Structures are given as structure tokens and as C-alpha cells.
Amino acid sequence: MANSSENTAKKNESATEKLSLMEVARRARAQLAELTGMEPDSVSSFTETDDGWSLEVQVLELRRIPDTTSLLASYEVTLDSQGEMTGYRRIRRYVRSRADS
């Protein structure tokens, strides 16, 4: 019986462990890639929220030659406190060579 209660305690402990920033970024990238079929290029920002995390992920949507004309997009990705995606949306599309103003 003690073994069962030890397992429950370990599960509760791991459920309350805070994810590292690197783990949050990895999970956001992996889940976005799985849902969209596109490979994330980078994570440009992330913020801890009351419910988990909000990240901005850059994705290469259309590769062109020369590469400076490739089409990228910024996605807002939200994760809960366990690192599971709760939503995403494309917030911007742009050509790689175009700088933010």
C-alpha cells in the first residue's frame, strides 16, 4: 500500500514542477510543427501568464530562391502550465528580407 501512495505523491509532485524556459520553447515548437506541418524557425518571445505561457514563434511558410524572398510568419502560441498547447494563431506574414519598422 505504501508503494501506491508513493507513486501518487510523485505524480502530484511532478504535476506541480515548473517547466524550464527551454522546455516550454521546445514543447511549443514541437506541437506547432505537428499541427501545422511546418517547421518552426525560432522563438522570438515568450511570457509566463496566469494560465501558463504565451510565445511568438517564427515559421518558414514558403521557401524561395533567393532565400531573402522566402515567406515567414509569426504565430502566437499559448500553452497551459503543463506545457500543453491550448491555442495558436498566425499574427503576421512577411518576406525574410523585410525588416520590422
TrEMBL record:
<dbReference type="Pfam" id="PF05800">
    <property type="entry name" value="GvpO"/>
</dbReference>
<dbReference type="InterPro" id="IPR008634">
    <property type="entry name" value="Gas-vesicle_GvpO"/>
</dbReference>
<protein>
    <submittedName>
        <fullName>Gas vesicle protein</fullName>
    </submittedName>
</protein>
